[in-house]
Write a structure and sequence with these properties.
It holds the Pfam family Ribosomal_S7. Belongs to the universal ribosomal protein uS7 family. Belongs to the TMEM186 family. This protein is of the alpha+beta class. The chain has three domains: 151 residues, no CATH class; 42 residues, no CATH class; 148 residues, Ribosomal protein S7/S5 (Ribosomal Protein S7, Orthogonal Bundle). It contains 18 helices and nine strands. The strands form three sheets. It has a five-stranded antiparallel β-sheet, covered by helices on one side. The protein has a two-stranded antiparallel sheet with strand order 5-6. It is elongated, with a radius of gyration of 39 Å.
Length: 444
């Protein structure tokens, strides 16, 4: 019994924490604990061996979990990396062909099948091609194709090509990268080297011919002097492509009502020093500007003649005002006068709201049959259909009547929840109700 305990105790010092935990569990726990406390070096060795064995069992899983949980953002890309990888893999085929063709051609030359000069040409072509591709592969070893960083800019993942032309990934801490001042300069300044303190591998980053997606992160990781004027012109901002505004710019606030609300709540002071995008040419902070009226004017316009469309809409509003004033003066009681709306813009808003559909029919093919399936309609689409139906109803009226008068009649009818457009909306809703049995085809 005592010999067995001594044998297991000796194994615990040599094999790590697995056997020591077994002896602690079954064989003389007090004796083994006192021995481990007595010798700090042995305890350190046991902990080191146990941690090393644990890491040896699960190194890939931990690395994959860390890589999967980290949100990597692309900050650099070399566009010709796929072509470079293909050429690097191509160097092995000329080596094999040259190794077979040169002895074969020399043998055929000895047997007088062809001349020795032909064998020399075959050998020269094979050796030249092999040497050229090998030199190209040597120059492009450890060429960086992609560079990723996490959200905190604390880790960097480098994807590069190895000697066989295959993609390899390495994850390093930004603080562990060697400063550029400590590295030798590249030949002809075609690239700048990237190196880590842990290993001797030097990666090649061709920043002058690559695409930098995040200049701020790239400068913080590799240094401010990396991005030159030539490189800055090639930088790409994925968040706002083809735009001069970065992602930190906010949208302009053109409505005076929203500005007053921000002043009352105190949120206006929070964005006082935040860069703001320039307002669009069709945005206006005037009290006379109405987005719905501007959109309605664009729908009235034909062949780009917006001045004529604006004049027609204004004349239509003038006719609405005259008709409503006649009703106002003909009203006998104050209650009737209070119900009459005199603002043409408010009447247009009310007319559009009354004409907006809630559902629409979409053709969906199932089993060779095309069904009209009712689906909900978006808000933008409903506003478009309401104004489109109103203008179609206006243009379908008599051609002898001017457009502003017909528009005024149609807007007043729609505001009162009457007219062709309201009937068309109810007819569409009735068809959707009739086809509700096919509504499940929307998800199938």
């Amino acid at each position: 019994m005592l010999r067995t305990c001594r044998f297991l105790k000796s194994l615990s010092y040599t094999r790590g924490g697995v056997i020591s935990s077994l002896t602690h569990h079954r064989w003389q726990p007090a004796l083994l604990q006192s021995n481990i406390k007595r010798s700090s070096q042995v305890g350190t060795l046991v902990r080191h061996c146990s941690s090393k064995s644990a890491l040896a069992q699960q190194p890939a899983e931990t690395k994959e979990q860390d890589d999967a949980t980290t949100n990597w953002n692309t900050i650099y890309h070399f566009p010709s990396i796929m072509l470079t990888a293909s050429l690097k893999r191509l160097k092995f085929y000329p080596m094999l062909c040259t190794g077979i063709a040169v002895p074969l051609s020399i043998g055929l030359g000895y047997f007088d099948v062809w001349s020795m000069s032909t064998a020399e040409v075959v050998g020269a072509i094979g050796f030249t091609t092999t040497l050229t591709l090998s030199l190209f592969g040597l120059i492009t070893d450890n060429l960086i194709g992609f560079v990723y960083c996490d959200d905190r800019l604390s880790k960097v993942k480098i994807s590069f090509l190895d000697s066989k032309g295959k993609r390899q990934n390495r994850i390093y801490s930004v603080d562990e990268l060697v400063s550029r001042t400590e590295l030798p300069k590249s030949f002809l300044k075609l690239y700048f080297p990237v190196k880590n303190h842990e290993n001797s591998d030097v990666y090649k980053l061709v920043h002058q011919y690559g695409e930098i997606y995040d200049v701020h992160a790239f400068n913080k990781i590799f240094g401010h002097e990396v991005v030159t004027k030539h490189t800055a012109s090639q930088c790409i901002v994925p968040a706002a492509r083809m735009s001069q505004y970065g992602p930190h710019f906010i949208e302009p606030i053109v409505s005076k009502e929203k500005i007053d609300e921000l002043q009352k709540t105190g949120d206006l002071s929070k964005i006082s020093h935040v860069p703001i995008k320039a307002a669009l040419s069709n945005q206006n902070c005037s009290v006379f500007y109405d987005p719905l009226v501007a959109q309605f004017t664009n729908y009235v316009m034909k062949q780009g003649n917006k001045q004529l469309a604006r004049e027609l809409v204004e004349k239509g509003f003038e006719n609405i005002k005259r008709l409503q004033l006649e009703r106002y003066h003909l009203a006998e009681s104050e209650e009737e006068k209070a119900k009459i709306e005199l603002n043409p813009r408010k009447l247009l808003h009310q007319a559009v709201e009354n004409c907006r559909p809630l559902l629409q029919l979409t053709p969906i093919k199932r089993g060779g049959v095309r069904y009209q399936v009712p689906v909900p309609i978006t808000e933008k689409r409903s506003y478009f259909l309401a104004m489109k139906w109103m203008l179609e109803a206006v243009r379908e009226k008599e051609r002898t009547v001017h457009f502003p008068e017909k528009m005024a009649w149609e807007i007043l009818d729609a505001a009162a929840n009457q007219g062709k457009v309201v009937k068309r909306k109810h007819e569409l809703h009735r068809q959707c109700e009739a086809n509700r049995a096919y509504a499940h085809y929307r998800w199938s």
